[in-house]
């Protein structure tokens, strides 16, 4: 199955940003030339993007929970009989809770690839030949997910 160029580019970008794979390895994974990968990296400034991607999903969830906790503490600090959220505070709490729920339940292709990478690294140590076979299957699965 051949993916459209845009999906190949998205996959290559994800691999470049999230892994330590070489440009040659990425090119092979997504079935494009090394020059194509190099062009994408340079024209779209992927190196800068890779350097700026420092917030993980868990860190973002942590920030949201801190904000929810801080807002709840503020509400609890109000005078007795006034310890409830006004409409703006309630709206903020609702939006923060929704954002947390989305982050907790969402499994992106990036999450899938990260799990595959971790598993493959472990499998390489256990059985290198099986890891090679598994990589072929995971690549097929990622192509399948990207084609949806």
Descriptive labels:
single chain, 148 residues, mainly alpha, elongated
Describe this structure in words.
With 148 residues, this protein is mainly α. The chain folds into two domains: 5-53 and 108-147, no CATH class; 57-105. It has eight helices and no strands. It has helices at residues 5-18, 23-30, 34-43, 46-52, 57-76, 87-105, 109-126, 128-147. The radius of gyration is 21 Å and the shape is elongated. The two termini are 12 Å apart.
What is the helix/strand order? HHHHHHHH
Model regions low in confidence, pLDDT < 50 over at least 5 residues: none
Number of strands: 0
Helix content: over 70%
The chain-level structural class is mainly alpha
Helix count from the secondary structure assignment: 8
Strand-residue proportion: under 5%
| Average pLDDT level | 86
Q: Whole-Å distance between the termini?
A: 12 Å
Biggest sheet, in brief?
none
**Gyration radius from CA atoms, angstroms:** 21 Å
Cα shape? elongated
Kindly give the count of domains: 2
The gist of it:
The protein is mainly alpha-helical and 148 residues long. The protein has 8 helices and no strands.
Write the layout of secondary structure elements.
Layout: H1 5-18, H2 23-30, H3 34-43, H4 46-52, H5 57-76, H6 87-105, H7 109-126, H8 128-147
């Amino acid at each position: 199955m051949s993916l459209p160029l845009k999906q190949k580019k998205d996959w290559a970008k994800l691999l470049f940003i999230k892994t330590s794979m070489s440009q040659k390895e990425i090119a092979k994974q997504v079935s494009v030339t090394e020059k194509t990968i190099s062009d994408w990296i340079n024209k779209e400034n992927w190196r800068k993007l890779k350097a700026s991607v420092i917030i993980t999903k868990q860190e973002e969830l942590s920030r949201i929970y801190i904000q929810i906790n801080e807002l709840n503490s503020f509400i609890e600090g109000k005078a007795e009989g006034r310890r409830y959220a006004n409409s703006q505070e309630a709206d903020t709490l609702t939006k923060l809770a929704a954002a947390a729920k989305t982050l907790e339940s969402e499994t992106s292709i990036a999450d899938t690839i990260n799990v595959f990478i971790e598993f493959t690294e472990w499998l390489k140590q256990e059985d290198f030949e099986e890891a090679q076979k598994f990589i072929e299957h995971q690549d097929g699965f990622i192509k399948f997910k990207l084609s949806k």
